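Figure S7 source data.
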Amino acid sequence: MTPDAGSPANLAVSQDADGVWTVTLNRPAKRNALDAATIEELVALFTAAPRRGARAIVLAAAGEHFCAGLDLVEHHDAGRSPEAFWQLCLRWHEAFNRIEYGGVPVIAALKGAVVGGGLELASAAHVRVADAGTYFALPEGQRGLFTGGGATIRVAGLVGKARMIDMMLTGRIYRGEEAVRVGLAQYLVDGSSLEAATAIARRAAANLPLTNFAICSAISHMGNMSGLDAAYAEAAVAGIVNTQEAARERLAAFAARTAPRIRPED
Ligand code: 1HE
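Tokens for the predicted 1HE complex:
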């Protein structure tokens, strides 16, 4: 399988022998601002990747910044109608839903600005890795705009409603340990976030694909359900995943005492 999903112009895509793909936002001269074309490329790529054998995906960025959010210049020049922007937002949702619900672990390698729609994109990933220079903000409030790429669900889900409202009212910026503490990133690394994210992706890719599919889609879906329905759905997913043939070898290794034990010192 190849990562070729129609030769995207604004994304660079590569893969290694273990099925770990690296998808790189590749408009560094525009700080990887998300124009309509890039959103379409994200839709196509993240629609195709699960069916093309991707075992895990690192979402990375060229240049100094992860993503400056909505392409404000395109938006200014386009003079969009409410209907046109509404439709555009639906394409953003399509792209980010493919990331979150596609069943393949997506690990975001963050750096520099992760702002506005860039934070909406990052929050659709399953794991966020920040480096020392990464900062998070929702500057929509200052720009006379509102979030349209799912932040009211995903960013509020990460940091809570009150912090998101504060970020939007005041332009508050989070970074470093504080960003981890409030839930914007799970990892903060001294060195390269790309290296760390790739190591996490490789580790996740060693899991069975069906197990990862459940982890990376069922948990999100269940978050949308009532507690009673989520428990029912969890049992159904476990019925499928926990009886998969491919898991028998791993269970046999545990029973034979050859599988690693889960200990903090290991
Ligand atoms: C852009 C964009 C953009 C840069 N749209 N072109 N997002 C924001 O409000 C963030 C806006 N961007 C910035 O605050 C800064 O660009 C950065 C802090 C990210 C980087 O600063 P810097 O000094 O490295 O770069 P720069 O000089 O500001 O920009 C370099 C170029 O990138 C320049 O283009 P050039 O042709 O004049 O060289 C900028 O115009 C371009 N650029 N950011 C378009 N965002 C679904 S709703 C989502 C709502 C939102 O996301 S609101 C957007 C929030």
